[in-house]
């Protein structure tokens, strides 16, 4: 009788890229989990509205990582300010749950023209950027085109962001992230709001948890300096456009703790805090 033989190679699928991965969104995943011993054999299941953290391993490519998370290469490139689209072993990448194109407005641009250029839906663009379809765009503004195509370089399926609806309402769970200030923009993008206040105002942890992202420099897809905290109820909160972050990834924080200071970094037209709740209703 012919019997199945165990693979003699340490890695039965040596041609695959990657190796071990670390995803910080409440779950740690290892590469050797698929039926054939590879992460490529299983579908990565994750909520579509949370941010993940990926640690680059030897043999990884942007295309492989993009395919694993179901986003485009450009999504990873602009979210991490990658220059030359190169990555290195041990590098930590922020993986946003949206695939799309970043477009800088030029003279004569309209939302309709942008939608046509990138083969995208004009209503989705308007919704995500919190503008009206016939809005007059200012030269130099950055428009995110959800599910944009055209010249974008992508080898992975793309997902279109939606403004969060019908989410769980954790009454009393979240603290207002700054003292004072005025809400200058309602729900937009990833279930976020904008609170206008003076630069340097302390930013407070809305709920206890651990810091998974603290980006202290760069454009970061328009967020500028920003922080993401993961909470025990499975949600995340994001604090963007800061002038300074004073927490680091892995740090435990308590509700009301100062984690940074209001600024005007990234895609921002004045000092304010952009505050998102991912996975639950934004109570503010």
CATH domain topology of the largest domain: Glucose Permease (Domain IIA)
Please give the CATH class of the largest domain.
Mainly Beta
The CATH superfamily of the largest domain appears as Glucose Permease (Domain IIA)
Main sheet record: 9 strands, antiparallel
Number of helices: 4
CATH architecture descriptor name of the largest domain: Distorted Sandwich
Which blocks of ≥5 consecutive residues have pLDDT under 50? 6-47, 150-165
Descriptive report:
With 284 residues, this protein is α+β, with helices and mostly antiparallel strands. It folds into three domains: 87 residues, Membrane-bound Lytic Murein Transglycosylase D, Chain A; 47 residues, Membrane-bound Lytic Murein Transglycosylase D, Chain A (Roll); 97 residues, Glucose Permease (Domain IIA) (Distorted Sandwich), CATH 2.70.70. It contains four helices and 13 strands. Strands 5, 6, 7, 8, 9, 10, 11, 12 and 13 form a nine-stranded antiparallel β-sheet that branches. It has a two-stranded antiparallel sheet with strand order 1-2. It starts with 51 loop residues before the first strand and ends in a 6-residue tail after the last strand. About 20% of the residues have low confidence.
Give a concise summary.
The protein is α+β, with helices and mostly antiparallel strands. The protein has helices at 62-69, 73-79, 111-117, 122-129, and strands at 52-55, 92-95, 100-104, 142-146, 182-188, 192-196, 202-204, 209-215, 225-230, 236-245, 252-253, 258-262, 272-278.
């Amino acid at each position: 009788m012919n019997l199945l033989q165990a693979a003699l190679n340490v890695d039965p699928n040596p041609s695959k890229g990657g190796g071990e991965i670390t995803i910080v969104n409440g779950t740690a995943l290892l590469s050797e989990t698929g039926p054939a011993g590879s992460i490529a054999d299983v579908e990565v299941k994750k909520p579509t509205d949370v941010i993940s953290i990926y640690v680059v391993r030897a043999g990884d490519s942007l295309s492989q990582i993009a395919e694993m998370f179901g986003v485009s290469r450009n999504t990873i490139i602009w979210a991490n300010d990658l220059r030359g689209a190169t990555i290195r072993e041990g590098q930590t990448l922020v993986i946003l749950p949206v695939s799309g194109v970043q477009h800088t407005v030029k003279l004569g641009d309209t939302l309709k023209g942008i939608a046509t250029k990138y083969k995208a839906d004009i209503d989705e663009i308007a919704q995500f950027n919190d503008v009206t379809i016939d809005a007059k765009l200012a030269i130099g503004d950055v428009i995110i085109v959800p599910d944009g195509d055209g010249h974008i370089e992508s080898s992975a399926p793309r997902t279109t962001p939606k403004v969060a609806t019908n989410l769980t309402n954790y009454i009393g769970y979240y603290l207002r992230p700054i003292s004072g200030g005025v809400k200058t923009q309602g729900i937009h993008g990833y279930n976020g709001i904008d609170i206008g206040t003076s630069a340097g105002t302390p930013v407070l942890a809305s709920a206890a948890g651990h810091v998974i992202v603290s980006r202290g420099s760069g454009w970061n897809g328009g967020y500028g300096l920003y922080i993401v905290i993961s909470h025990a109820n499975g949600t995340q909160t994001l604090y963007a456009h800061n002038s300074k972050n004073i927490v680091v990834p892995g740090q435990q924080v308590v509700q009301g703790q100062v984690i940074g200071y209001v600024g005007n970094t990234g895609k921002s037209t004045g000092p304010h805090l952009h505050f998102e709740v991912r996975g639950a209703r934004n109570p503010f």
